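Q: Got a minute? One more chain.
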Amino acid sequence: MSLQIELIRNKSSLREFIHFPWQVYRGDPNWIPPLLIEQRFLFNKAKHPFYAHGDVQPFLAHRNGRVVGRIAAIVNRAHNEFHHDTVGFFGFFESVNDNEVAGALFKAAEDFVKANGLTILRGPMNFSTNEECGLLYEGLNQPPAVMMTYNPRYYIRLLEDAGFEKAKDLLAYKMTQSDLSERLQRMGPVIEKRLHLHVRRINMKDFRADVWRFRDIYNKAWESNWGFVPMTNAEFDKLAKDLKLIVDPDLVWFAENSDGRPVGASLALPDINQALAKVNGRLLPFGLFKLLYHKRRVDGIRVLAMGVIPEYRRRGVDVVFYWRTYEEGVKKGHTWGEFSWILEDNEPMKEAATMIGAKPYKIYRVYERALDPC
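A: Always. Here it is, folded:
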């Protein structure tokens, strides 16, 4: 039987779509199974906030009655309005090691975004740079940190053979306790005092208000970054609700100036992936207990968001955040930290990471290809 590409139209085919990664990664010790309940929610058009400004069409590839690949074509109107772009996206790509399968999936995604008047196909994005994005290009011999991606090495060839080229590289830096530079320990408190900063933890009793403060800083700090899309109120509420379940308030920081105005914020999370690896995507009937048990044994963190408003950049606020996060992380028994992701051309953030002793150890690549006119 020839290869067939199927639109996802019902719960049965969506279930096949969601469960297909377990086939691809069977026996791979570095893969972290996603929570099935969260995967189902991502494709709930009635409830997920992305669909207020975006469209998603998932596809399955079948051969001889067997699922051999999947992809989702994504139209993100918020991205194109913000950047004045005509870019379509693909995400949730998984495939057997077969160029025919991958090519047919990319063609299906291409046809969908072209039908929406778009001229470039870019990805992987699940659904945008505000969520998981990028193909793991270097550093494939270790599991991903929380909310980062992972894939087989052959995916690189599948994309490049299909005509995709590099759009942007996203870097991940890592440091251990032994990597910490003396300069950070010395400069952190000095900069904090010199700038008259009041640095505080997130207030869990006033969580929602601090979430909105973080959102305002995030949007101001990131608005000129490649690929950035401002998060809607509903999207930020969804993210905050998810993070509240795993956040450690001692690893979330705000910096305020002498007038009490927030000038920066930093969010680090315990690497909950170490616990998720134990539950195989299922919270019931016993997965939740396993998750809570192994969560206490997490030994690393990921700094996933750090922003400083424009007038306070290049003054060392990021160094203060790194110092504070390191001090608290060590107290809690964490032995390593990942700083991700950082745009390949974001020199200030790369310099700051290097200054504290972190080293680049993974590259995530976003690909794109121009689409032929209809």
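A: The radius of gyration is 21 Å.
Q: Perfect, thanks.
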